[in-house]
Amino acid sequence: MATTAQRQSSIPAHAAHDARRARIGRNALQWLIYALLLFGALIFFVPFYWVVTASFKTAAELRSIPPTWWPETFTLANYPEVWRTEFARYFLNSFIYSGGSTLLILFTSSVIGFVLVKDPSRLGNMAFWFILASSMVPFVTYLLPLFNMLLRLERWTHIPFINTYQGMILPWTVFPFGVFLMRQAMMAVPSDLLDAARIDGASEFNIYRKVVLPLVSSNMAALAIIVFIFKYDDLLWPLVVAQRTEMYPVTVGLVEYVGQFFIEYNLYTTAAVLAIIPVFVIYLILQRFIIEGIALQGMKG
């Protein structure tokens, strides 16, 4: 009986020991995850920190060896010098290109998603899969054919597309990711609401504009932010279409500070900081729409 009592008393001790070991293992795993996240954050933060601090350094200090991690001679002269050039025009071009592309993509993606879901057909499903498959083709593979198509379109219509905003925006009339996102959002819109609106005599466009769009506003806001940032950062297509300096967006304008034999590092880093600021501010203000829009897609399945 004494042996049995000793065994019973040792069971809680073993259970407590196992619980303590499990807790230590969970804490170790948690600290490891935090360490990896901190390491990843540093990888992204250090270049950003270097660009920002370099914009307040003189050209001589930027070329000094060893490099300095904080400006020894703090100066703001780089900012007015950059802004006196054509950089303000580059900003305008970027906002027109990214804003125009965003508005066009929002309209076409929502209309296509509405038609695909609320008026399904085999042809529509086939078109959707063709659109989705086009996103798997690298853009560089059809860059030259797309440029040649613009040249032919310019000859046929006598409407200029090279070195124009419409030439930069036109290829993004159908955006595969936008079509996919809005199609998924349209699936959550109750068809009973649409039928009730049709009974009341509403046209299909009014149903789309007054019934459907308010219900998918969060998804459209998320798509708008994603597309705007993506197009604001675009380099390759504007570099091909915009062949005059006055049509350069910010991404192409940054290359102006990189010469064949010399790079103006103080002006280049300052221009890079100015280019980052709009996107950074927009993302800080509207990031909740991105999270809400993507989270809603996951909840809808």
Q: What is the residue-mean pLDDT, rounded to a whole number?
A: 81
> CATH topology of the largest domain, anyone?
MetI-like fold
Number of helices: 14
Which regions have little confidence, pLDDT < 50, spanning 5+ residues?
none
Query: What fraction of the residues are assigned to beta strands by DSSP?
Result: under 5%
What does this structure look like?
By secondary structure, the chain is mostly helical. The chain has 2 domains: 2-54; 83-300, MetI-like (MetI-like fold, Orthogonal Bundle), CATH 1.10.3720. The protein contains 14 helices and no strands. The model has no long low-confidence stretch (mean pLDDT 81).
Topology diagram in text:
Blueprint: H1 2-54, H2 59-62, H3 78-83, H4 87-118, H5 122-134, H6 143-157, H7 165-169, H8 176-186, H9 191-199, H10 204-215, H11 217-232, H12 236-241, H13 250-253, H14 265-300
Helix pairs in contact: 4-8, 4-11, 5-8, 8-11, 9-10, 11-14
How would you summarize this macromolecular structure in one to three sentences?
With 301 residues, the protein is an all-alpha fold.
